[in-house]
Write a structure and sequence with these properties.
This is Putative transposase. It comes from Octadecabacter arcticus 238. InterPro entries: DDE_dom, IS_Transposase, RNaseH-like_sf. The protein is of the alpha/beta class and 163 residues long. It has a single domain (3-162), classed as Ribonuclease H-like superfamily/Ribonuclease H (Nucleotidyltransferase, domain 5), CATH 3.30.420.10. The chain is 48% helix and 21% strand. The protein is built from six helices and five strands. It has helices spanning 46-60, 72-81, 95-99, 101-110, 117-134, 143-162; strands at 8-18, 21-30, 35-41, 65-68, 87-89. The protein has a five-stranded mixed sheet with strand order 3-2-1-4-5, with helices on both faces. Helix 1 (46-60) crosses helix 2 (72-81). The longest helix is centred in the C-terminal third of the chain and has 20 residues, at 143-162. The protein is globular. The protein starts with 7 loop residues before the first strand and ends with a helix.
């Protein structure tokens, strides 16, 4: 468990259509933009938000601040858990979580959408871990350091794939 992920979380949901049915992709992103958890549900209510929050907290522990959009399901779930005082909502506060959907959407378009819920859940969990591994926050480094970090990530990936 990484302690730095407990500082601030950004929670958001996105709509995904499979065969004309709307599914909801819940996503938790930490303050550095790393995807912590992705979860697909059929419903968009307090029960689904509560299940997502409990799953994330079980894996990463409690957080100091949870930033959400103004979806009422998050507020209701926070009251049940007892984190209502840690929730922050605002007009642009949750941009980090909204922007974390973009790489997923690009890949979704390239794959010509999804056919089944299970394949969506499997893809989302794998895509998040791979994206976290290769996302190097390019704007924080000069070119030479960025290339070194990217080469180290690629070496690590090749080591994982070789085993």
């Amino acid at each position: 468990m990484r302690a730095y992920s407990n500082w601030q979380w950004h929670l958001d949901e996105a709509f995904v259509n499979i065969d004309g049915k709307t599914l909801y992709l819940w996503r938790a992103v930490d303050h550095e933009g790393e995807v912590l958890e992705s979860f697909v549900t059929k419903r968009h209510d307090r029960k689904a938000a509560l299940k997502f929050l409990r799953k994330t907290m079980k894996r990463f522990g409690r957080t100091y601040v949870i930033v959400t959009d103004k979806l009422r399901s998050f507020g209701a779930a926070m009251k049940v858990i007892g984190n209502a005082d840690k929730q922050e909502t605002g007009r642009w506060l949750n941009n980090r979580a909204d922007n974390s959907h973009q790489p997923f959407r690009r890949r979704e378009r390239a794959m010509l959408r999804f056919r089944r819920t299970r394949s969506l859940q499997n893809f989302v969990s794998v895509h998040a871990s791979v994206h976290n591994h290769f996302n190097q926050e390019r704007h924080l480094y000069n070119r030479s350091n960025f290339k070194l970090n990217r080469a180290a990530a690629l070496t690590g990936w090749r080591g994982l794939c070789a085993d």
